[in-house]
Design brief:
Elements (H helix, E strand, L loop, with lengths): L19 E3 L11 E3 L6 H16 L4 E4 L10 E4 L2 E7 L7 E6 L3 E7 L8 H7 L8 H27 L26
Parallel strand pairs: 2-7, 3-5
Antiparallel strand pairs: 1-2, 3-6, 4-5, 6-7
Helix pairs in contact: 2-3
C-alpha cells in the first residue's frame, strides 16, 4: 500500500518574532548578554525564531544548553533554516539561563523569562544592563519580590478606593464619616 502526502494540506510553521533584549556592545562584560522571553515552554517551537533573530547580530548559533527543570521536553536537535541546532541540558546550569554557543563567535548567556510572566519589561531591561554582576537566578528572585510588593500596593490602593477613602480606626476597621469630630466641636 502506498500513501501519498499532500504537502499543501500540512500546516505551515509560523515563526513569531523572538522577544529579545540584548546588551549593547561595550567594553563592560556582565554575567548576562540579555534576555529572551519565549511565548511557550516548547523549545522545538521557540528556538528557530531565537536562532534566526541572533544569526545576523551574533553569527550562526550551533548549540544551546538549558536546565531541564524549566522545559517539559528537551529535544536533542532542532531544525533551523535547513540546518540542525544541537540542544543539551545540564541540571547544574542556572534554571533561568539559556547558553548559546557558536563555533566561530563564542558564547552568550541569556536570562529566560518564563512565558507566563506579565509584564516582563523590567526583567528585559535589567538583563541587558552592560557590566551587570547579577545572575539570572538573582534577577528572577528580585522580580518575585518586586512583583509581590507591587501586587500588595495595588490591593491596598483598591481597598482604599472601595471604602471610599474612609479613615481607619486603630483596629484596622474603616470608620464612617459620622465618627469624625464635627467642625463646631473644634475640628478644623
Amino acid at each position: 500500500m502506498t500513501t501519498t502526502l499532500d504537502r499543501a494540506a500540512q500546516p505551515a510553521v509560523v515563526l513569531r518574532a523572538a522577544r529579545l533584549s540584548l546588551t549593547p556592545k561595550t567594553a563592560l562584560a556582565g554575567r548576562l548578554d540579555g534576555a529572551w522571553w519565549p511565548y511557550s515552554r516548547d523549545l522545538e517551537a521557540e528556538l528557530p525564531a531565537l536562532a534566526a533573530a541572533l544569526d545576523e547580530t551574533w553569527g550562526r548559533i550551533t548549540r544551546v544548553t538549558v536546565n531541564p527543570s524549566r522545559w517539559p521536553v528537551v529535544p536533542r536537535t532542532v531544525a533551523v533554516d535547513g540546518r540542525v541546532l544541537h540542544v543539551g541540558w545540564f541540571t547544574e546550569q542556572d534554571p533561568d539561563k539559556l547558553i548559546l554557543l557558536s563555533y566561530t563567535v563564542g558564547r552568550w548567556d541569556l536570562l529566560v523569562i518564563p512565558p507566563e510572566t506579565e509584564p516582563a519589561a523590567r526583567l528585559m531591561a535589567a538583563a541587558a544592563i552592560p557590566g551587570s554582576v547579577l545572575a539570572a537566578g538573582v534577577l528572577m528572585a528580585n522580580e518575585i519580590v518586586i512583583g509581590r510588593g507591587i501586587r500588595d500596593t495595588g490591593r491596598r490602593e483598591a481597598a482604599w478606593e472601595d471604602e471610599g477613602g474612609a479613615c481607619m480606626s486603630p483596629f484596622g476597621e474603616p470608620m464612617g464619616r459620622t465618627a469624625l469630630p464635627l467642625p463646631e466641636n473644634g475640628w478644623r
